[in-house]
Amino acid sequence: MAAGPEDPPRAPRDRAPPDRAQGSLRMDRRGFLGAGLGASVLGVVAARRAAGGALPEQPAMREAGAPFSNYGRPSPSEKDIVRWIAANPGAPGNGVSWCPLHELEGIVTPNGLHFERHHNGVPRIAPEDHRLLVHGLVERPLVFRVADLLRYPLRSRLCFLECGGNSNAGWHRRPVQAPAGYVHGLVSCSEWTGVPLATVLAETGIRGGASWLVAEGADAFAMNVSIPLAEARRDALLALYQNGERLRPENGYPLRLLLPGREGVLNVKWLRRLQLSDRPIMARNETSRYTELLPSGKARQFTGIMEVKSLLLAPSAGMSLPGPGLYQLSGLAWSGRGRIRRVEVSVDGGRQWQEAALEGPSLPCCFTRFRHPWRWRGGPAVLQSRALDESGAWQPERAALLAEHGRHGYFHYHAIVSWQVEEDGTVRSVYGDAGGGGSAAPADIGEDWF
């Protein structure tokens, strides 16, 4: 009998006794509190008995606080929660800013911590001077000012945005030892607000033969990319706001293209031109980059959809468990093909899997937070998660992804991520799909990888 969408691709190791696989517990209040007696996340004791039923007076209660501010900022105590910047030393305007996913909660990324990818710096654009030209195979070429676009009916939606090169260290021969956000953090999730592209195209009209949309940005790189017109008409936004405020310069102020579920490079920032065409433009980022040679000798091109993916963030690499006890495993899952239907976690390198609890709402092309209680008994453990999306696609094991994509992969790495917990509680990255043991052995690819 053929496997259904609920059946992950490696059933023999999945037959775990329900709810008790290697310390996994049911995610309900009775099970969590009963097993942990109130233990906290990554901690042993959440509260202490009150002495005398009163708290001592804090210094801040004896003097007036700081003055008001025009724009709120995080507490100085949180100053270390920042993006990690990796810039090209020969061209400082070229590089990335990694989102510290491992330091965040919920599903919405603060604007100041949203990941960034820049090719030639951040342009300063006055909104009153900015224009969007829509031309090519249209009935009426039109130019829109930002003020014009703001008069159209706006629409908001929560969705993730992920760079096609996110997690590409997974293609390396050995696992990289760095906090989760600084390896997998070229992805973030925001509420975006703007004008549906379909509304603007209804104004210009579309001539017969138009099948591609070429988008161009107004930065010094002059980014331009090709997008299948049918996809763009379905759900693309001309985004003007992010998380309730106008776009920030680093994220495309005053106007960017937003294509939910598609790789980041297609979401052109500082959008200035949309050309309808009967063919792709075959730009640099469609030929020398973002084209991947497969084992068959054929190349993948125009692979815009970001596939199903999940990532455990608490705990994750670089963290340390203070001692045996009850912990809450927590992470994020997302898919460019729609909603997350299910997430499973394993604490023994993939021998046994348990279903995690999903926090609603589960939205298409959006982060979904998952949680699962786990009692760590103090021995070595390999923690993993895997996700299933509504298209029926499971997040693959690393070996399966390598077999499919071959040795020339750089983009679209979305395999299962493994964290090894050592006996002393330290957590580090491993490639844990070689037999389920999750050892720190070198990667399963040859020397000629490089």
Provide a short characterization of the protein structure.
With 450 residues, the chain is mostly beta strands. It is built from 7 helices and 24 strands.
Compute the average pLDDT. 87
Gyration radius, to the nearest Å? 24 Å
The helix tally amounts to: 7
| Shape descriptor | globular
End-to-end C-alpha gap: 41 Å
Strand content: 25-35%
Structural class: mainly beta
Strand arrangement in the largest pleated sheet: 5-4-13-8-9
Largest sheet: 5 strands, mixed
DSSP summary, beta strand count: 24
**Which blocks of ≥5 consecutive residues have pLDDT under 50?**
1-6, 9-21, 36-45, 434-450
Description:
The chain has helices spanning 29-36, 146-149, 181-184, 197-204, 229-235, 284-287, 398-405; strands at residues 84-88, 91-98, 116-118, 131-136, 142-145, 155-162, 187-196, 212-217, 224-228, 237-242, 245-246, 256-258, 271-277, 292-293, 299-300, 309-314, 325-334, 340-346, 354-355, 357-358, 368-376, 381-389, 418-421, 427-430. It is mostly beta strands. Mean pLDDT is 87; it is low at 1-6, 9-21, 36-45 and 434-450. It has a five-stranded mixed sheet with strand order 5-4-13-8-9. The protein is built from seven helices and 24 strands.
What is the topological layout?
Layout: H1 29-36, E1 84-88, E2 91-98, E3 116-118, E4 131-136, E5 142-145, H2 146-149, E6 155-162, H3 181-184, E7 187-196, H4 197-204, E8 212-217, E9 224-228, H5 229-235, E10 237-242, E11 245-246, E12 256-258, E13 271-277, H6 284-287, E14 292-293, E15 299-300, E16 309-314, E17 325-334, E18 340-346, E19 354-355, E20 357-358, E21 368-376, E22 381-389, H7 398-405, E23 418-421, E24 427-430
Parallel strand pairs: 4-13
Antiparallel strand pairs: 1-2, 2-3, 4-5, 6-7, 7-10, 8-9, 8-13, 10-11, 10-12, 14-15, 16-17, 17-21, 18-19, 18-22, 20-21, 22-23, 23-24
